[in-house]
Input
Amino acid sequence: MRTAAFTSAALFFVLCTSELVAQEPGTVLIRAGRLFDSEAGAFLENQDILVRGSRIAAVGPGLALPDGAETIDLGNYTVLPGLIDAHTHLLYLEDLSGSLTTEGLKALLLEGEPLRALHGAARARTFLDAGITTIRDLGNSGMFVDRALQRAIQDGSVPGPRMIVSGPGLSPVGGQFPGLQPEYADLAAREYRIVAGPEDAAEAVRENVTFGADVIKIFSNNTPNPGYLSVAEMRAIVDEAEVMGVRVAAHATDDRSIWRAVEAGVHSIEHGYQVTDSTLRFMKERGVALVPTDADSVTIMRFLELSGESAPGQGLSYLASRRARLRRAKTLGVTIVAGSDAYIDIAGPQGEAARRMLFAYHQAGLTPIEVLQAATLNGAELLGGEGRIGVIKPGAMADIIALEGNPEVDFDALERVRFVMKAGQVYRQP
Ligand SMILES: [Zn+2]
Output
């Protein structure tokens, strides 16, 4: 486990270093009215941040302006590390009237990979604008279209967040395409890496990492299909991932799929909707993070309104159970990492829709500081970027955003991102 953590951090360093080639900004002194210290879980008043090139060189009150440096005055703003969304799908957007099967097949057969990549590039920009400077993109991206988009962002051709990508998710037979006729089963293998047996599971890890995956995404259960990966398959995946220096993120919705994935040694549980307390304790014991891909009340109402749903009862009971399990996870001490999974088109920029995850966590009962740590410090740790992202301190990447207002007393301030810098480059100015 420790070896995997080390190599994952080394890989992350490579990802960040490759950005230095794209552009080399100059020296900038940022004057911050209020600064979020994600490690301390506290807001500090009147801090300065010295940025040299793509990295932070110094942080503290009253820093001197170096010769030739530019000043950015954010004295009236709250300054945070760039946000991290640990569960996205930039290459997939589902129409409200569709399903994973119809929309997934449409993406494969009618949209096609070149257009899919262009659509992904347009969505990438909206994440940056929303203040999300790093994402972990977990599949539903055809044959490594996520990797292509990551490269275009790294070489400076396309503005977007730093991407950690999985390539095709490792799934039991059928992928997430229920209803697919057996004679067309191969279509699922264009969107998922279907695995059968531990040997094949290990081979799938070797394939994905060889073709550019930074993380392995698996489907412990492949809802809405009924399959489960076996514990032996998942153990083979985790072992091979450790050898290849990457981590494993497990889609797992029911309690059985969650327990089995934790038993096999995965690093995060994605969704975890029906998790029981005993399984949460098991996660805590094994140091497995929960990425609760929850929608907030505004998103649910928008969804119901757009889909012509007149009775909101179902949406409200959905919210109540999701919130209750998040509170249980918090009480039992499980690390919570922000991840949006905002793949349904509710009209509007996808990055803004993704950012609503923060409101879901806040509505469930996490404090503003806990929510911000889930989207900065905890995300960095899960992605192997501790000390490099999710924090404003010397040596970290200069991923810096500013909000109008104070999210500690007015959480809606998170809707008012006015400044965005990624790796020292400014993408949005007040
Ligand atoms: Zn997802």
Residues 10 and 91 are 27 Å apart (CA to CA). The chain has 14 helices and 16 strands. The longest strand covers residues 70-81.
